Amino acid sequence: MKTIRVTIDPNATPGRIDPARVDATTEEEIAKQKAADETEAMLDAARFARRVRKRLGLSQAEFSQRIDVSLETIRNWEQGKRCPTGAAKALLKVLDKAPEAALAALD
Q1: 31 or 42, higher pLDDT
Q2: 92 and 52 in contact (C-beta within 8 Å)?
């Protein structure tokens, strides 16, 4: 487990917002920020899927066969076109944490 040390400024007011800034934010700015957040999440998922596969030392084709997912799906995950969800996301997490056990269970 990773430990992070945080220094708290006693003069800061945590949880406070700048109401003037919030009121000045337009719907267009909110939509742009939402799109940027979604793009970043897709890139994070792509990096994670690629990292898991590379840690296993498998090509995309080998990885797709081992986890019984189409090669096109693996490519879409790694290019950030699609994001693994549900069982696929859970499987990637298990492969990341306990690769030997996960691969043995898939055989």
Answers
A1: 31
A2: yes
Domain ranges of the chain: 30-106
Neighbours of 62 (CB within 10 A): 14
Token pair for residue 10?
Answer: 């006693």
* Global pTM value: 0.66
Compute the distance between CA of residue 84 and CA of residue 81 in angstroms, rounded to an integer: 10
Cα(46)–Cα(76) distance, rounded to whole angstroms?
Answer: 8
| Contact criterion met (CB below 8 Å) for 74 and 45 | no
51: helix, strand or coil? helix
Which tokens hold the place of 27? 């719907």
Better pLDDT: 19 or 58: 58
- What architecture does CATH give domain 30-106? Orthogonal Bundle (1.10)
